[in-house]
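Internal QA ticket QA-208
Title: Verify multi-chain structure generation after dependency bump
Assignee: T.L.

Test input:
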Amino acid sequence: MLGAFAYVLATAGAIPITMRATVPILVAAGLLVGFGTRLGSGCTSGHGLCGIARLSKRSIAATSVFFGVAMLTVFLTQPVI
Amino acid sequence: MSRTLVALFAGALFGLGLAISGMMNPAKVVGFLDVAGEWDPTLAFVMGGALLVTIPAFRVILNRPRPILADGFALPTKSTLDALARRSCAVRRRLGVVRVLPRPSCGCPDHGARAGVRVRRGDDGGDGCLYMVLRMAASWPRVGGTGGS
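Actual output:
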């Protein structure tokens, strides 16, 4: 967070941030992320970067699953333009 | 003390990397995941770039007898797929995202030894790539003879 904060300060808030989700949705999503991270024994970086780097089958499976499910979630929740 | 400083530096560097890559913007991340819409694949290069660092670095580091600032490496001990994949498959089944079908009793090759996976919602038949990811992910644990859902 410090690094990101420093970057925001350095770029004088020039980063575009588009937030569509409402606060209750964000809270629910955060809880789901936390639950899934515990259930899957690792987060995006833990499995995706460290686990794959160790060539762990569990991490490769976890990464495929959570990217797949995330893509499906976007597919189901985003309005079709 | 030096452990704290190194952790602070590593965390700040990680956060800086996320900010520079645009991952602070939810719309950017959604764009990467929106494979069926206006897909923005640029975040794949962030992941790829990170792996270009971690894959060789982990090899070098894990070949050392011990870490510089700790007594030993704390690594996951489980290496088999079963528990993890079975559990995530069960959860997805409960959520109604994918459904593992029971093994049919007929002998036709298409319905053979593997449990089939069907995407219940959102599968318009045209999204082969996503379907394949889900199918691969969900077909790992064989639901042999248990009757599936």
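Spot checks passed. Chain B touches chain A through 54 residues (CB under 8 Å).
Status: verified.
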